[in-house]
Amino acid sequence: NAGVTQTPKFRVLKTGQSMTLLCAQDMNHEYMYWYRQDPGMGLRLIHYSVGEGTTAKGEVPDGYNVSRLKKQNFLLGLESAAPSQTSVYFCATHSLAGGLFGPGTRLTVL
Amino acid sequence: GIQVEQSPPDLILQEGANSTLRCNFSDSVNNLQWFHQNPWGQLINLFYIPSGTKQNGRLSATTVATERYSLLYISSSQTTDSGVYFCAVEETSGSRLTFGEGTQLTVNP
A88 CB near a chain B CB, below 8 Å? Predict the structure, then answer.
C-alpha cells in the first residue's frame, strides 16, 4: 500500500516546454486534487476530480489541464510552461477519513 | 468562495511549552482538517474534525462549527513539532478543500 505517489519528484523546464505530472493512488479514493504551493503561502487548488472521467477547475486553473482516465491516476499537464508556474505541486486524495497528500513535485521553469 | 484565516502566522516556542493555533472560516463547512507540513515539505493529516474535540497524543483539536472556528492545541512541544500547520475546510457546496495560509511554528531546544 503505497498511498499517494507523484512522478517526477523534481523537474526543470525551459519556458514554452510541456510536461505531465503523474499522481497515482492505491486506496480506491474517488476524489483527487492537484494543488500548488508557493513560498510563504498555503496550498491553492488547481484542478480536481470527483471520480473517473470527471474533472473540474479549482482556484488557479489557467495554464494547466488534467485528465482522470483511470480512477487511480490523475494527470496534470502544462502545455507551455511559464516561469510563473515554478512551484511545488502536491497531489491529494480525499475520503471520509480525511485527506492524504503525495510527497510533492518541485518544478522550476527557467 | 469561503475564506480561511489562521492565527498567529508565526509562533516561536521553547521546548516543553504549550500552544494554541486558531482557524476561522467564513461559512458553513462539511468538514475541517488540520495538517502539519514538516521542514522537508511532507504534508501529514493530523485531524479530520468537522465538529467536537479529538485528541492524539500531545495534540488535540476542537471545532465549534456553529461559531466557525477550530483550535489546535499542542502540549509539551518538541523540536519535531516545528513546521507549518495548515487548516483546510471543505465547502458545503462541493468537495473542494480550501486552505488557510498556515501557522509557522518553530520549537527551539
Answer: yes
Burial string for B53-88 (b: 16+ CB within 10 Å, else e) reads eeeeeebbbbbebeebbbbbebeebeeebbbbbbbb
Q: Check CB contact under 8 Å for B86 and A88.
A: no
Q: What is the pLDDT of residue A73?
A: 97
Peptide bond into B8 cis (omega under 30): yes
* DSSP-assigned beta bridge partners for residue A94: A31, A99
- Cβ-contact B45, B87 below 8 angstroms: no
Q: Region A40-61: what's the mean pLDDT? A: 91
Report whether A49 contacts A31 (CB < 8 A). Answer: yes
Site from B3, B87, B99, B103 to mutate, A interface, most A CB atoms within 10 angstroms: B99
Strands annotated E in B49-82: 52-56, 59-64, 69-74
At A2 the pLDDT is 67
